[in-house]
Write a structure and sequence with these properties.
By secondary structure, this protein is an all-alpha fold. Helices cover about 90% and strands about 0% of the residues. InterPro entries: TnpC-like (IPR046229).
Length: about 200
């Protein structure tokens, strides 16, 4: 066998060995991606290269490895985005529920204040109408009831103010959450705009 034929045979053997090593490395990359998906770990080029025992340069230079990692990263990003959206929806539902509860409490506070004011008016009317006929003990009792009712009205007014502040805060948080959801939806709709 001539020298050029031997050289050509060695070159062909070296190319075949390199191709075999390259295919084995691509298979390790795909195996590493499968493991990362099973573990629900974050997919990055560095993580895949470590797991597959290849260099990052190999992942970037080899078209098959690069395509597999890019697809896995895109799937991972979408999974994380959907997870964040689900968490945001849950938070928004909690804040919406708090806002509704605050509104209900506010309505009930207004109703209670109106009822107490009506009752105070009735009692004051009775005091004026019958004051001449009442003795000192009855007047003292009615005055005490009147004072108690006024204190209750003041307390309900303070509670009403507190509930209004909570409702305002809940509405503000709900508006923020709505803006956050709109932003996340726009990111999902236009993934090319991400860096």
């Amino acid at each position: 066998m001539s020298a050029s034929a031997r050289s050509s045979a060695r070159t062909a053997a070296a190319v075949a060995a390199r191709r075999h090593r390259s295919q084995a490395a691509v298979q390790r990359v795909q195996d590493a991606l499968a493991v990362l998906r099973r573990e629900k770990a974050r997919v990055t080029v560095a993580a895949v290269a470590r797991r597959a025992n290849v260099s990052r340069t190999f992942v970037y230079d080899n078209p098959q490895a690069r395509a597999a990692v890019a697809a896995a990263v895109a799937d991972d990003d979408q999974r994380h985005t959907l997870s964040r959206l689900a968490q945001d929806d849950a938070r928004q539902a909690v804040w919406r529920e708090r806002a509704l509860n605050a509104e209900d409490a506010l309505k009930s506070g207004y109703t209670e204040i109106a009822r107490q004011r009506t009752r105070i008016g009735e009692l004051l009317g009775q005091i004026r109408d019958l004051q001449a006929e009442w003795d000192d003990e009855t007047i003292a009792r009615i005055t005490t009831e009147n004072t108690t009712l006024k204190q209750r009205v003041r307390q309900l007014t303070i509670e009403n103010r507190t509930l209004e502040e909570r409702l305002t805060a809940a509405r503000s948080t709900l508006r923020f959450q709505d803006r956050r959801i709109a932003d996340l939806e726009s990111r999902i709709a236009n993934p090319a705009g991400r860096t």
